[in-house]
Amino acid sequence: MxxxxxxxxxxxxxxxxxxxxxxxxxxxxxxVVLVVYSFNGAGVGGFPPANWxxxxxxxxxxxxxxxxxxxxxxxxxxxxxxxxxxxxxxTALALxxxxxxxxxxxxxxxxxxxxxxxxxxxxxxLMLFVGVxxxxxxxxxxxxHGTALISVATTEVFAGLQKLDRAQEEASLDLxxxxxxxxxxxxxxxxxxxxxxxxxxxxxxxxxxxxxSFFLIGRDNTLPLEIWSRLRRGITPEINAIxxxxxxxxxxxILVWYRLRTRSASMDEPTSxxxxxxxxxxxx
Amino acid sequence: xxxxxxxxxxxxxxxxxVTVFLLVPYAILFCxxxxxxxxxxxxxxxxxxxxxxxxxxxxxxxxxxLRSMRIAFSVTLLALALGYPLAYYVSFYTQARKELLxxxxxxxxxxxxxxxxxxxxxILGSDGVLNGLLQYFHITHQPLEFLLYxxxxxxxxxxxxxxxxxxxxxxxxxxxxxxxxxxxSQDLGASPWATFxxxxxxxxxxxxxAGATFAxxxxxxxxxxxxxxxxxxxVMISNIVVSLxxxxxxxxxxxxxxxxxxxxxxxxxxxAERLEKGLTVQ
Lengths: 284, 282
Known about the structure:
Mean pLDDT of chain B: 91
Number of helices of chain A: 13
Strand content of chain B: under 5%
Oligomer: heterodimer
Radius of gyration of chain A: 23 Å
Largest sheet of chain A: none
CATH architecture of the largest domain in chain A: Orthogonal Bundle
Order of helices and strands of chain B: HEEHHHHHHHHHHH
Radius of gyration of chain B: 24 Å
Mean pLDDT of chain A: 85
Number of helices of chain B: 12
Helix content of chain B: over 70%
CATH architecture of chain B: Orthogonal Bundle
């Protein structure tokens, strides 16, 4: 097929192109506003921005409470990654290789938090923790994140398993390695990229998570909840400044994540980008 | 190929975890919805349907639920109206820049949810960016007060948040449309519009369905956007749940509402799954 014959692509569609760029403008307008006004001496609103300044960033870097929240969030996210991967890996293996009664229900339950509004996961866990007399703290938040994000780890690792060359595992077993050795030497190394990609994704999602944390938080705040509590007190461009930094961090992580994914997959493949795939129950 | 011990090792730990941290909590939610609050402000474990009766009899709850569904439905339609043409454009009308244009849709997806809600708050406020802009260019002379704290603001914010989510599955399904089919249709004399309507659109419906389900379900359960930009006229059903679990202290009633939401969501997911299978078989 020559390029000329697949004329669809070379057809100009000025209206569609214009429309698409308006959609891009809509998607980026708030982000641009956010970043621009983080340098605005005159506050979060008004037009045009005036008195360009770095003061808000200076304030931000001197703000101990905020950095404590950043640290809390990072710790929560790191442990949530460990929990979600530690359980998501066996879950994906179980869905791929094991049959047991209730498997279909198990699969649905694991994946449900991907699509379920966070409030329901948050509330149900709140009732569990209160029921067993556990005090709400960063520990309960971490358990909540870890549990909700097993879904992400499972879809990522399951996708990795589908690309795994089974012949390698069979060869290893035929050559006398036992199952565990095969797992450590063949299966796990082959899943490395999926695991790293899932880990990055889970870390970012946990860092941003607010609906589940909202119900499970104790005295110490995660970053989004710290920002949230400040929003209720009144807004200053300091929030724009921290938002800009979060944005930069998310973009950097996601670019790494994306590179990892595309290294082993073509980009039109359904990814586990939250729910895009799972809505259709891709992991069947 | 895998021994029983191997299967047990990969199955039992997640099964236990999921039971303790997902199944049991949902079961507790279910139980709570039949309990009540005693006059002494403790949870009374006597089973009754009174919470559900209250939901049906108090028109406030039904009204807010209907409003939430209207908002979620508007968000879904708008996100489709923005996301579908965008996906169609990126999939069919870009060449060298395709990868870049795709990534440009992904990036806002990762801008924190809270950050985006907050951004709209600063844009829509009466002394916000948009009002400043309109007055600067003398389009308006008074700040428009209706922009912030309205259902409109909630719909706009949620549409912004969920458009990339709707884009993704639609784009994936468009990429799977065999290009040979498109060429065949054109070679046989169909106009681009006819090719779109009779070949491309039907093949992309599973993606549309996935994106629409996702946008609807997550908008329906949202409580942060209404708190940020909704005001009193933008209150959604989850906000009522939040207040029942907070100041109003009526966990059982809150649990009953959550359970209704859960049922709506699960029903929708099942329906979407059935529909999707039907579409694929065709």
